[in-house]
Amino acid sequence: MSQQAALLHAIWGPRPVGDSPGLRALPGVPVAEGLRVYRENAKALAVRALGAAYPRVLAWLGSEDFAGLAWNFARTHPPTCGDAAAWGEPLAEHLAAMPGLPALGADLARLDWALHRLGTLQDPEPADAGLWQVLQAEPPEHVRLQLSPGLAYWHLPTLEDDSSWLQAQEGGAALAGLPSPHVVVWRAGWQPCWTTTSADGAAWLAAVLSGASLADALETVLAQHPRFDLGAWLAEAWQRQWLLGARSL
Questions:
Q1: Residue 123 and residue 149: Cα distance in Å, rounded?
Q2: Cα separation, 22 vs 1, whole angstroms
Q3: CA–CA gap between residue 177 and residue 157 (Å, rounded)
Q4: Please, are residues 66 and 51 in contact by the beta-carbon 8 Å criterion?
Q5: Domain named Putative DNA-binding: which ranges (predicted)?
Q6: Which of 17, 150, 188, 204 could form a disulfide with 241 if both were Cys (CB 3.0 to 4.6 A apart)?
């Protein structure tokens, strides 16, 4: 093992501080003391990086418990690159595996990470107003809707079962549809956005995101949700900047 690999293992790994053979410190500095300093810095980095990526989990747990979680997570999932903003994706699974922790924590982490990753994307191109002409001129089996890059649908059950905390925390238009387990995330106006949607809206998004034509998506959704209103969805999608255009197939 190289000196650098040994140092990283000593900082992030389970070995007790001071029990790190092969490492040498600067003259006059004990190895254990040097490692303690590195570890304290690593802990602070873990808390800052995860706190930036997971603000709802941080607010839900509180700063003290979140700091403990961040270090525990870092010990089992240490950073593998120099970009702290790219680190932390497995936190939802880490929370889900923690005994006794309410399932809301993992769903909040999934929402947080989805929004965090959207924050790294460029804003989409302006929507093409010509999509309405395409929708009128082309048969639906020859049309595919183009959604905003990064737009995604998530099924997060605890947002329906345990929505009171999130409602109190956020409020506003994002939660107008709560309680609902169906969440849409997208980027608009230089910032990540999210909202809840209905079951038929979620089924429609899933069909469109799968690449189905307009006709196939409608057939799939209407079989399960016969009251689905495509016109209302198109109007909402245009207003929220979900919909960028329509392609002829």
A1: 8
A2: 9
A3: 14
A4: yes
A5: 3-95
A6: 188
Q: Which residues of 36-54 are buried (b: 16+ CB within 10 A; e: fewer)?
A: eebeeebbeebbebbbebb
Which neighbouring-strand residues pair with 191?
188
- The tokens of 30 are what? 């004990």
Average of per-residue pLDDT across 103-124: 91
User: What backbone phi and psi angles, to 5 degrees, belong to 155?
Assistant: -105, 110
Instruction: Report whether the peptide linkage leading into residue 79 is cis, meaning its omega lies within 30 degrees of zero.
Output: no
Task: Give Rg (Cα) of the chain.
Answer: 23
pLDDT digits 0-9 by tens, 4-57: 555 555 556 665 545 555 555 556 555 565 566 677 788 888 899 999 999 999
- Terminal alpha carbon distance of the chain: 55
- The residue with tokens 């106006």 is 189
Half-sphere exposure of residue 63, counting CA atoms within 13 Å on the CB side? Answer: 2
User: What's the pTM value of the predicted model, to 2 decimals?
Assistant: 0.83
Per-residue HEC secondary structure of 3-17 comes to HHHHHHHHHHCCCCC
Tokens 């000196």 label which residue?
3
Q: Which amino acid is at 165?
A: W
Q: Which residues contact 94 (CB under 8 A, 6 or more apart)?
A: 73, 76, 77
Question: Can you read off the two tokens belonging to residue 8?
Answer: 């990283």
What is the pairing mode between strands 182-188 and 191-196? Answer: antiparallel
Angle at 74 between CA 70 and CA 77, to 5 degrees: 130
3-state secondary structure of 172: coil
Question: Is residue 230 within 8 Å of 207, Cβ to Cβ?
Answer: no
The span from the CA of 156 to the CA of 240, in Å, is 21
